[in-house]
Amino acid sequence: MVKQTRLFFLFLFVFSSCEQWVMPQDPGSGALEVFDQLWEDVYARYSFFDHKNLDWEQIREQYRPEVNAEMGQLELYELLADMLFELRDGHVNLSTGFNRSRNWEWYQEFPVNYDENLIEESYLGRDYWISGPLQHQMLDDVLYVNYRSFAQSISESNLQVVVERARRSRGVIIDVRNNGGGNLSNASLLASAFAEEEMVYARQRIKSGPGTGDFGSWEDMKISPREDGTYLGPVVVLTNRRSYSATTFFAQMMKVLPNAITLGDQTGGGGGTPVFGELTNGWTYRFSATQTIDLEERQLEDGVLTDLRVDLSELAASRGEDNLIATAIAVIRSNN
Amino acid sequence: MQAYSQSTGSLFLSTGIQDFTGRDQGFSHQKYSGIRSMSTATFQLHKPQKTELFQFDFAYGPLKNRIGNSMNAMTIGFLTYTYYHKNKPEVKSLHWGWSNQNLFNIRSHNGFSNYSLRYDYFSSLGPSVRYIMPLQWKGQHFEWHTLSHLQVVGFQIKSGYIGANPDGYSGENTIMGNFFESMEPFIIGKDWNFGLTSSFYWELPSENKLGLNYRLDISGLQGIQPVASFGNALLLVLKVKLW
Questions:
Q1: CB B233 within 8 A of CB B19
Q2: Is B2 contained in some domain?
Q3: Is A19 on the interface with B (CB under 8 A)?
């Protein structure tokens, strides 16, 4: 008995000690180790190095010599934020608790083309309808719908109200200017209300290995008609440079529909779905890990171009008019 | 006196806690640890020269890493053991046999908005051994069972480099087509799965048994995003004799 028990505990001790072998300790949390963790993960999983012609190894050569063991958290954050800024990608952030790095150049260097006060005063007025996140108002015989964030979910009943009002109009304007994105399923649901048949609107591929060109195969992205009813009359979608991420996808969905056009300025992009990661010092980050192209193989990361390029006129705005909405109304009426 | 020419069937029901540590490099290079609840149900079919065990495992619980990020991890397993032995009363004995492990792990990261779900599955075969030692103390009957298995060869399916679906999976293919496209071999040396279970039973007057079970599970699946886990569990067991 004693012999067997000893053998058993010896056996148990040996295998219990395997934990260190099966699962080595976590990497360290010193400044240099944190820098290397972030740089290596971005190098292994970021999806736009080739498309943006970025040399990530050269960026490492540029930033790594500035890292030292004595540097404080703020200094390290600023260095890492500067390194990530080089990716020129709105889906790249480093979150530290005390600050969140970002690159918003995709809209900051371009005309705003949107005035929320003007919309409220001249178009929505005081009696506009609110159906979940959708704000809508009849502008004579055209339905104007404003959706400010795809992060706010639309319900089927919200959408049904819009579809029924649209059916009593000559056309619909969907204003997604300044809509910075959110959940892609909300974009698909809204677009489904205007689709007559299932259509491929884009193709997406995901990183499948550490090489800058390692991707899975292109997969079709489709929209399908809404089962509870659709509106197939003319639709104009208003976009600007601050229409980003899920809003870029929405613009592309609408662009392929035969009854819809896009108007305004191109979207800001955001065609890569972000993947998340964490550093051993407690900071988290995200960056794009997919690529999406339209039917002409143009990257959605570069934004969706509009069918009609129109900027907001300061003169029109001073008269209380949004000339993008005015143009959209004219387009709809010319289709009837 | 039991008629050893006949077969007997028993059911083992156990529940307890598992100290679990896992690392999925598709999420992070950091370890996630925590105490999970664990339950198992095992049916044992004892025949004159062969004993088979069919074990269903379930474990679920929250895990945290050292910086406080969390995930929920669930394990569902189906493990069979087959032992070959002589037709004689249960005395102190060592039995050799083989085992088939089917293990599915799914993890949901609570801090990541996209690609927050990852899983792995493998099915494999390998040798197994058990040691049984009946004991008597102050007129009471006790039994110490220890069994272990080491998986050698099989196949595995794991989440992809970024997303939950395995690389090679395509929404356009058939289920079987996707299954074969996503499958990779499980080969000892590259991949690991080892388990050890040691139980101490006290025989009740009803011929059922009450026991305490210690369990060790070690797994490691290599590939483009390696996954590893290590679990120690302590379970309370009730063995019910069915016939």
A1: yes
A2: no
A3: yes
Whether A17 has its CB under 8 Å from any CB of chain B: the answer is no
Q: Are strands A171-175 and B32-46 parallel, antiparallel or unpaired?
A: unpaired
B165-202 pLDDT, tens digit each: 998 777 667 888 888 888 999 999 999 999 999 999 99
Chain A, residues 203-242, CB within 8 A of chain B, namely: 206-209, 214, 216-217, 219-220
CB B198 within 8 A of CB B185: no
Q: Residue B122's closest CA among B65, B80, B171, B183?
A: B183
Write out pLDDT tens, residues B53-63. 999 999 999 99
The class of domain A116-195+230-268+303-335 in CATH terms is alpha beta
Residue of B18, B23, B27, B115 best to disrupt the A interface, most CBs of A under 10 A: B115
Structure ipTM: 0.87
Q: Answer yes or no: is B54 within a domain.
A: yes
Whether A274 contacts chain B with CB within 8 A: yes
- B195's CB contacts (< 8 A; 6+ apart) are B79, B101, B148, B149, B215, B216, B217, B218
Q: How much of chain A, in percent, has pLDDT values that exceed 70?
A: 94
Alpha-carbon distance A24 to A22, whole Å? 6
C-alpha distances (whole Å) from B2 to each of B6, B19, B44, B87 are 9, 39, 16, 12
Please give the C-alpha separations between residue A198 and each of A159, A192, A195, in angstroms, as whole numbers.
19, 9, 7
Rounded Cα distance between B147 and B143, Å, is 13
CATH number, domain with residue B173: 2.40.128.100
Bridge partner residues of B41 (DSSP): B13, B56
Question: What is the domain range of residue B65?
Answer: 8-241
Residue A22 and residue B220: Cβ atoms within 8 Å? Answer: yes
User: B215 to chain A, minimum CA–CA distance in Å?
Assistant: 10
> From its phi and psi, is residue B171 left (phi > 0), alpha (psi between -120 and 50) or beta?
alpha
Of A19, A273, A282, the CB nearest to B230: A19
The answer to whether residue B4 scores a pLDDT higher than 70 is no
CB pairs under 8 A between A and B: 102
Are B82 and B114 a contacting pair, CB within 8 Å? no
The alpha-helical segments, DSSP class H, found in chain B are: 175-182
Contacts of B65 in chain A (CB under 8 A): 26, 278
Tell me the C-alpha distance between B93 and A229, whole Å: 72
Per residue in A124-133, pLDDT tens?
999 999 999 9
